[in-house]
Amino acid sequence: MIKKILVVGMSILAFTFASYAARESHCADASKGGKQNGAGALTVVGFSQVGSESDWRLANTQSMKTTFSEKNGYKLILKDAQQKQSKQIAAIRDFITQQVDYIVLAPVTEAGWDNVLQEAKDAGIPLIIVDRMINTSNNELFTCWVGSDFRRGGEVAVRWMEKNLGNDKELLIAHLQGSMGSSAQIGRTEALEEAMSKNPAWKVVARDSGDFTQAKGKEVMARILKQHPRIDVLYCENDNMAFGAMEAMDELGRTYGVKGDTKIISFDATRAGLTAALEGKINYNVECNPLQGPRVEEIIRHLKKGERPEKLSYVDETSFDATVITRDDLDKRKY
Ligand code: GYE
To answer: What is the mean pLDDT of the segment spanning 219-246?
Structure first.
């Protein structure tokens, strides 16, 4: 009997040790995985990007590419999900199979990540979230997050509307939303909704998603304009949709901006967005900084040293009023 217990006990111990060893060697394995990828001593980073829907997104991708270059000691495996969560889930699974050293995820939506994040965690691969946030009951499923406070950005925009357009007279608002279910859309929409509940004279007469793209922004706005001869404000959740909306307004001879009938509020404040503000076409543009590559790299450097970086870090951001912006603001713009 005692002998039997001893044998069972020994095999449990051996099994535990074997799985522990397999787990512990993961980090070493991960860099070996890199070597198999032909990456030499490079740190392998798998980045699942939302897509290429906007100028903001292109600048974000570029920032990651420049930061995680071979000359900086990295091999970046970039996968564009074309705004589809299913593609992002497949990309993460592929990164796990390839045993990358780190996974970076820019999640298209907030919901639906728990299973695949658990898989990455079980594989022992640190996962850093950038830009939008996820909705999870277990914050341990990701290592860190770096991005913008979208709700705050929206609040900055509605404060400007209150101050400059007033909250006592009727304001007919068209609301172009970003990709539904993304943190950027949720935060910016929530801020407007909260302001609506406080300002009964404001009326959202049309609301639809332009999916953060110029083409869809134009299409949706053209439809809205046909139904509404008067729009006082276009609250537009990114610059590219605003450009599309401006095209639609131009085609119908509707005026906008500082001197026009429809005041435009936009988000991102990319170089093209700031140019439109400087030209008086976008009245107010709230900045959203896409240059997150260096921040992610800093997190990875901390992790490599065994340090615990901040769980959540917000990017500092500002905003631009068309009547105040200068040429210098535009010249300083890096994206
Ligand atoms: O505002 C939009 C992009 O998530 C902050 O996504 C990002 C948003 C950005 O497509 O232009």
So the answer is: 98
The two tokens of residue 64 are 């990651």
- Separation of alpha carbons 24 and 113, rounded Å: 25
Q: Which helix (H) or strand (E) holds 264?
A: strand 263-268
CA of 288 from ligand 1 middle (Å) equals 8
Ligand 1 site residues, Cβ closer than 6 angstroms: 53-54, 56-57, 131-132, 148, 184, 212, 238, 267-268, 288
**Does residue 256 contact residue 262 with C-beta atoms inside 8 Å?**
yes
Residue nearest to atom 5 of ligand 1 (CA): 184
Instruction: Give the distance from CA 109 to its chain's centroid.
Output: 9
Q: What pLDDT digit, counting tens, does each position of 41-76 carry?
A: 999 999 999 999 999 999 999 999 999 999 999 999
Please give the structure tokens belonging to residue 86. Answer: 């299913």
Which one-letter amino acid corresponds to residue 18?
A
Q: How far apart are CA 206 and CA 192, in angstroms?
A: 13
pLDDT tens sequence across 285-294? 999 999 999 9
